[in-house]
Amino acid sequence: MARPLPPVMTCGEPAGVGPEIAARAWNELRDSLPFAWIGDPAHLPKGTDWSEIAEPAEALTVSATTLPVLVHRFPGPAIPGQPKASNAAEVIAVIARAVGLAQQGRAGAVVTAPINKKALQDGAGFAYPGHTEYLAALGGVDHVVMMLACEALRVVPTTIHIALNEVPNTFTPALLARTIRITAQALQQDFGIAVPWLAVAGLNPHAGEGGAMGYEELEWMSPLLDELRGEGFELIGPLPSDTMFHPEARARYDAAICAYHDQALIPIKTLDFARGVNVTLGLPFIRTSPDHGTAFDIAGKGIADIRSTVEALRMADQMAARRAAL
User: Fold this and answer.
1) Mean pLDDT of the 268-276 span
2) Mind listing the pLDDT tens digit for each residue in 206-233?
3) Counting Cβ atoms within 10 Å, is residue 241 exposed (0-12), middle (13-18) or buried (19+)?
4) According to the annotation, is 132 in a ligand binding site?
5) Identical fold between 1-143+284-326 and 152-271
6) Within 10 A of 152 (CB to CB), how many other CB atoms are there?
7) 77 half-sphere exposure, CB direction, 13 A CA radius
């Protein structure tokens, strides 16, 4: 595959670990995977070698020796662990700038560093529940899907950040069908899997065990999966979630579609806690992010684990290369 345009990485919350993990990820990757960082260079760790660039493509030649920076000035300093309300609007503006570059074909992908939703709400009236919803609005789409991915496993929670007692009413045939369609398309387009196999977890223990532990699998999940199989989707399930994630089971599918948050995230974080990548499927541009938060408690100490950030950059770059080859 040809070298795609470089990804752009947002600064995230400046008071968190975002600036330091970007600098350390560049130091590890350099010209093996060039990327451009968008943020205020005053927020980077002291001593970071950086160069101002005007376009993401310039990172291809700059990255070998310095961190390529698309400069975006902030009104206030970055004090580790202490988000400033005055910086909130620029955190949001950086995200919008990165998306604009990707949508204009000037960047290969968007990699987002962690934000703090409360800081953005308090400082700038941020009107979205989180990163993903804002990105969907910027992309002009109503429905997106969250995937967590590592070398050993890809998982998709159909319902995400809701209470467990809300899952049975939120987990509907329409939502599951939409999640399956978006996931299958993304696996083909961005992961190079011509015929993706998806394993679908049941909602109930033992996938309902024939109605003894719940009826959703019998009443609508199995009929829905049969209908989608008739359209050409390769689906396994509904399966008992407690037997889906051992090595032999994982070898049978390309991604697991789960009913709710913990059903999906517990197995992937058990298998590879440090290298998981958050991927948003269904956007008109590529977006990945490290699977962790702002880590205010360790910000500025230089001890944050960069492995998830490095993998997020690698995955974004690989996805961009596949799209460029289509």
Assistant:
1) 96
2) 999 999 999 999 999 999 999 999 999 9
3) buried
4) yes
5) yes
6) 14
7) 7
| Distance from C-alpha of 159 to C-alpha of 276, rounded to nearest angstrom | 19
Q: What is the pLDDT of residues 158-202, one digit of tens each?
A: 999 889 999 999 999 999 999 999 999 999 999 999 999 999 999
| Residue 143 marked as a ligand binder | no
* Strand intervals (E) in 140-242: 145-149, 154-157, 197-201, 234-239
Model pLDDT, residue 129: 85
Q: Report cis status (omega within 30 of 0) of the bond before 114.
A: no
Looking at residue 325, its pLDDT comes to 84
The Cα–Cα gap between 191 and 125 comes to 36
pLDDT in tens, 67-122: 999 999 999 999 999 999 999 999 999 999 999 999 999 999 999 999 999 999 99
Given CATH 3.30.70.2190, say whether it is the number of domain 152-271. Answer: no
- What is the token pair recorded at 25? 């990820």
- pTM: predicted TM-score of the whole model, two decimal places: 0.95
Determine contact, residues 18/114, Cβ cutoff 8 Å: yes
Asked if residue 269 belongs to a known ligand binding site, the reply is: yes
278 known ligand binder: yes
What does the alpha-carbon distance between residue 166 and residue 133 come to, in Å, rounded to a whole number?
Answer: 20
Known binding residue 261? Answer is yes
CATH superfamily label, 1-143+284-326: Isopropylmalate Dehydrogenase (3.40.718.10)
Please indicate if the annotation marks 246 as binding a ligand. no
Q: What number is the average pLDDT over the span 127-135?
A: 91
Domain locations in the chain? 1-143+284-326, 152-271
Backbone angles phi, psi at 151, to 5 degrees: -60, -35
Task: Check whether 275 is labelled as a binding-site residue.
Answer: no
108 neighbors 102 (Cβ within 8 angstroms): yes
What whole-number distance in Å separates Cα of residue 181 and Cα of residue 120?
A: 33
